[in-house]
Amino acid sequence: MSLELFLQHFFNALTLGSLYGLIAIGYTMVYGILRLINFAHGDILMLGAYFVFYGTTLFCLPWPVAVVVSILGSAALGVLMDKIAYRPLRDAPRISALISAIAVSFFLESLAVVVFTGLPRPVHQPEWLVSIITIGGARLMPLTLLVPGVTAILVAALLYVVYHTKPGLAMQAISKDIETTRMLGVSVDKIIALTFAIGSALAAASGIMWALRYPQINPYMGVFPGFKAFIAAVFGGIGSIQGAVIGGLLLGFIEIMAVAFFPELSGYRDAFAFILLVVVLLVKPTGLFGEKQKEKI
Amino acid sequence: MKLSRVFASVAMAAMACGLAFPAQAAEPVKIGVYLPLTGQNAFGGQLELDGIKLAQQATPKVLGRDVELVVVDNKSDKVEAANAVKRLVERDKVSAYIGTYGSSLAMAGGEVGEKAGVPGVGTSCTSPLVTQGKKYYFRACFIDPYQGAAAASYAYKTLGMKKAAILMDVANDYSVGLCSFFKRSYKKLGGEIVADMKYNSGDQDFTAQLTEIINQKPDIVFMPAYFAEGAIIMKQARELGGTFVMMGADAMDNPDTVKIGGKAVEGFLHTTFPYDVNMPNMSPAAKAFTDDWKAAYPDKDPNVNSALGYVCYNLIIDAITRAGSDDPEAITKALAETKNFATPLGTLSINATHDAELPVGIIQYKDGKRSYIGEAIAE
What we know:
Oligomer: heterodimer
Helix content of chain A: over 70%
Strand content of chain B: 15-25%
Helix content of chain B: 40-55%
Strand order of the largest sheet of chain B: 8-7-9-10-11-15-16
Strand order of the largest sheet of chain A: 1-4
């Protein structure tokens, strides 16, 4: 394989992997704090992309404004989702909240089909993001470098919030013991609402990025990326923010490089990724960066 | 509006035979029609019915007897489709029947016709399964994969492209069928397949496969995807610097292809049915159909579904004429022997699997506009 060709594959993988990582940090954050796999994450991603689409086409907002509106709207939706579907189940067995999450996911998809119709919609791409540049013979768009950049900034911001702010401290406390945290006078519901707001804002941001890279949106666009990102989060060790990013990048690289080195097996691209996932979990059941759950005495 | 049109058409058919009856001593020849006139496929069914009625206006008699059309709505539903054919063969005792739009509907209806031993001619049901193993079911359209063979011949012979790459959706029968027909014909003609890449339905990232394809330097890439995926594939291919020609099939025939793909769709080719109101060098049969249509329905352009309905009616009339009888067995035999029959879709022959062999139309996108540029013949 020539260097030029490898470089092209490398950039393809970097874009895909950092997109997976970006989606995965939203999954992993909600899981890390609430031990809830929020299956609706992929659907918030889809709604985030649609909000930008309607913001720019229907309300003629400039693109950056539409992005901000979409992220804020999705955050609000996340809070609402928590209030309606998860808060009433806070003390119920964990499986109930999981089923509720699946229901929210189906509800949002069906709602999107009814409201937006099932037709795929084209997405406007700002010219400066998609004009082609050449690096060492490989062709890429500024978007290719922007996605890992955005992912890095969001991860840094998220780590700061979780480890260096008061609400972050409360989040950590909730993740350890929700009852004790409540007794210590922390407004648990508010902190959890904030968690969902941040998680959904991250989903919207990744949805917007995803739609820029693959400029066609439909009500089911969140299902596959959400699924892959979930795998990435488990791969990296669910609950670990750095792990989610590394897991996403690895998944992206495996998918692309499998095709690059074994072109005749391109139909089994997903199989490669999943086999490796199984192997990692067999060797290290908590994922690459997962903490071992301590048994409570 | 749809419903009122259905009523109007039924009323017209009823009036036509009501008026014809007293004047004619001989019994009319009955031809059944089952189409989706309501439900999700109503749009296609209605267009095909318009074509059938146009053909009946042009040829109202066969063997000196009037032709009576018995139209039944299959409501875009499989069970209704089976019931519709049951009604046509048992109650109305039709000699043959036409229909339907939609392969799954045709499979349900064809089963009933097969048991009754009454011949049917499908309009636009393109799945290979529709006529598979059936003695009494035919169709006026070609099967989906047939387009793959025609695409190969167009790429190799007309465009002179010697190296092709394939990008196939392994999870989709349509794509798999077209690709295997393309590969077989292209190799037989002497072409070389330099890359044979695969993806799964629902994938959005094709960069790895496309980078590999670009590396193999093909002249043309055959990618029979659905339009939303296809547009994304073209976009990614151009972004990665691919300069080859790209070719798809009729699933790409959608105005949104250009909306999603934008400039990347420029020059894109795809196969389709061989009729378009703006086609150059119309055959006399196509011209006659277009003129008849414009006289009968001045407010709308004829489309390929209407042409298919029109062809179905004419195929049955031709078979009855050659058989010299309206006996279902005799018609079946004559239908199977149909060779080089002139239709608006080109010269049609029925092959051993009861599918139509027709030229395949080629569409190209130039300056963001879809234009019909010619035909290809599968070999």
